[in-house]
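Q: What does the predicted 3D structure of Asl1-like glycosyl hydrolase catalytic domain-containing protein look like?
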Amino acid sequence: MTVFQHQSRKVTMQHSFSLTGITAICFGLLIAGCTPTAEIETGMDREGGRSSQPATTGNREQVMSGLGVNANVHSWRDGELRPAIDKISALGDITWRVVIDNGDWESVRNPAAPPAIDWNYYTPIYETPELVDLWETIAYINTKPGQEVMLNVMGPVSQWMGGDHIGADMEDEWVRTMASMAGYGRTVKNLDFTLLAPLNEPDLNGIEGPNVGPEQYVRLLHKLAVALDDLGLTDMRLVGPDTALAENAMDGYFRELNTDAVVMDRLAYFAIHSYSGETSDARQVLAQSGSGLDFWVTEFSGPCPGCDGGAPNPADWTSASATALLALDLIQQGATGLLHYDAWDGYYNHHGSNGYWGLLAYDKANGNYSPRKNYFALQQLTRFVPRGSVRVPMDSGDARIKAVAFEDPVSGRFTVFGVNTSDDVIPARMAIPDIAGPLDLSSYITNATHDMEKTTGASVSSGRIEATIQPQTIFTLSGIPTKG
């Protein structure tokens, strides 16, 4: 996350990393008629389990694989964060970009600087309060069904390693730091995570993460992939480059990544940040490369002026509607993952201030977390679009209605997520050519006066939906076909 708004805001290399010793450590250590949100249907109730394969038959768009949030672990405070995690996990199948900040937990260089990971050196580091916050946060998320964890490192590295950059002679040290963290979390703490995003905004200023150019970035990821394999973490996939600017990702980082087969094979998702809707044709570039990669937007949000520098979040309808419209824009450009910045308010070391971007506001006086309007805006999407849902073609029938549609191949759930951007009530006739119906749809709305409230439903018939959409309103229409 930056201190300003991005785009309108803000030949295998050999390493000898061994798990020898870590095994020993493991053993030795609206209106009348609206109903409350408590009655909301869930998109997570699906027969047959979770689908891991894209549904590519027919006239289909992208498969959604990562709707979720960024989450700062330094708000753990001996478990005070548990109710906040409960609220976020209730949003649906959530992907968590779990953030540790800064990347400087190895404050003193190991004087021996051995080529293999020295677990006698690293174990005390990974039991310090800062790292315990990380382990405890992930452990609690792991208790919630349908949740997926991606570990991300923000902020500068240790000064001896370069601080705002990674010295060329310190690359192996950085690799040991990242690999040892992943190995300790997985092997000693027995945590469930298989996605690692080791750098944040390497194209920026050295504050959000060390400044790492495309060539060095690929070199580091290659070494890290080898190190993870040496630790037995062959299922640990990488996510990146997490650039602040989409054009930097496509013009520089992807071009360089595409020259290294080891790294490309290890990448789970190509990741960018976008607060303006700019993706620099990421979907088209990735498709033309033949890489098979989807792209995630691992930071996105509507405007929140001053929220990095300690200014309170306006928590208003304007911000929430902008977030919903940005999500629609990014999905329409082909993003398969969207991670909202941020899950909750909290202190960021690399900013040196509290951040107030949270879906959940934090009350320091009583330690409570309460949802802002943006929470309900995101819930309108995530609650009914489980992981593996496929975007299907649709026409809203009115330029004032921005909308996308999805079908879950496991349950058959069909969902429309959209925004009426006008000040008028619109009697909409939406065309859904791939969904013939008949199908009854529940309706939920969020606007200036309502938060994810149930209203009069609609139905699909002959590939068409007729529904009355309230002005300046985020809406969701969703239903599961009756089995008979």
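A (community wiki): The structure tokens above were generated from the sequence. The longest strand covers residues 148-157. The chain is about 25% helix and 25% strand.
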